[in-house]
Amino acid sequence: IGEWTLPGARFPLETAQDSDVGTNSLLTYQLTSNPSFSLDLNENPGGKRQPELVLEKALDREKQSSFELVLTALDGGDPVRSGTVQIRVNVTDANDNPPVFSKSVYEARVAENLPAGSLVVRVWAVDADAGTNGRVSYSFGNVPDGVLALFAVDSESGEVRTVGPLDFEEKSKYIFGLEARDGGGLNTHCKVQIDITDENDNAPEITILLRGQISSPLSHGQGRAVSLGSARCLQCRQEAAGAAVDREEREEARSAAAPPAADPLDRLFPVRLGGGRSAIVLSLRNRAARGGGDGGTSSVQELGSLVGANDNAPVFSQAEYTVRVPEDVPVGSVLVTVTATDADEGLNGQVKYS
């Protein structure tokens, strides 16, 4: 009997046979007590009683997949004689249960240098149905193409593995949905959250925003100082702390502030400390145009001093100030003095209170 069968359904049973005649052959039937089934006797035109099994309540294969009943036939003689037969009812499955994930959210933390094909997380869903109705397969839900380029899920095992390189600097967290579907078409979803941990795979880099733009042409061998102004540059690197100087002061600048001289830029543009402020050489490019003469010209197009940005908020010396004063304190009395400091320079570091 299918578990989708509605209560009230009737199932005819085989009748018993008795070789006696008269009242000795009159048969009646009894069924062992069971809340799911009852017995009804349907009298045929010939006077024989046909036993029928009647379904009294809905079946649920996941709760009980079979029933063992005993049907007894009794004759009308004295003494009464009887015979029995066993009835086994097997409940066939309906796809009435969707898959269920073991978690609603699966979390994982992996390093950004994880090789392709590495296991990230495994999801798991079970389906209470039987056969193909209980067979679960896994797939991505509606996810961006970027996720599909980095991760893959095994449809049978539920294992999520990497298929592309992860980059913490590009994205440090991925959240996407996975679907579990059974053989009958029912499905359910879960969420996967993958945190990418940082590895030391990038050289230091400075990104600075300076005001304006300068361009100072230099002739080869000129050996003069380039005055620094405000400039704008992105993705620049720090070559030294100081300002550009004349060739004669090169060694002094190197010993005071410059990094090792292996960089050819250091040979072209010596720097020195000055005025307690730091300066940087920003992405210098030598653009020499060689003509038919003895030499050419070069230009420094990005050279600027490091200007402090307003990237620090004021910080109070205490998170909370508590003061007790009498109710008759004179007007204008100082109750408490609060203090805050700002690590920025100049106007950016001046603190006002309100």
Automatic annotation (TrEMBL):
Gene Ontology MF annotations: calcium ion binding
Protein location: Cell membrane
GO cellular component: plasma membrane
Keyword Flavoprotein included in the entry's annotation: no
Family matches, as InterPro entries: Cadherin-like_dom (IPR002126), Cadherin-like_sf (IPR015919), Cadherin_CS (IPR020894), Protocadherin/Cadherin-CA (IPR050174)
Keywords noted in UniProt: Calcium, Cell adhesion, Cell membrane, Glycoprotein, Membrane, Repeat, Signal, Transmembrane, Transmembrane helix
One of the GO biological process terms: homophilic cell adhesion via plasma membrane adhesion molecules
Cadherin domain sequence ranges: 15-101, 102-206, 317-354
Main localization of the protein described in the UniProt heading: membrane
Topology within the bilayer: Single-pass type I membrane protein
Entries under PANTHER family matching the protein: CADHERIN-87A, PROTOCADHERIN GAMMA-B3-RELATED
Protein name, entry field: PCDGF protein
Native species: Lanius ludovicianus (Loggerhead shrike)
Gene, per the UniProt record: Pcdhgb3
